[in-house]
Amino acid sequence: MQLVNIGYGNVVSSERIVAVVSPDAAPVKRMAAKAKENGMLIDASCGRKTRSVIVADSGHVILSALPTEKIAGRAMESEEENDGI
Q1: pLDDT (tens digit, 9 = 90+) per residue, 25-34?
Q2: What are the residues whose beta carbons fall under 8 Å from the beta carbon of 39, sequence distance 6 or more?
Q3: What does the domain layout of the chain look like in residue ranges?
C-alpha cells in the first residue's frame, strides 16, 4: 500500500484514488455538497482554501489545500514506485 501526502500531515492510499479534480467546476461543487449531506466528505484542507478534490473508490470525497497537479504528480510517483517492485 502506497500513501500519497495530500498536505498538512494527511495521507491517502494511492490505490483508493479514482480522480483528482479542480474544485472550481459546478458539478464538483455539487458532488462535494452531496457528499457532505451523506457524511462522505473528508476536509483535509485544515481550514485553508480548497485547491483540489480527491474522489475515492469508496465514494468518499476528500478536500485538499494542495494544487491538483501536485497531488496527481505524487500519486503517479507512488504508482511508478509500486510498479518497480
Answers
A1: 999 999 999 9
A2: none
A3: 3-83
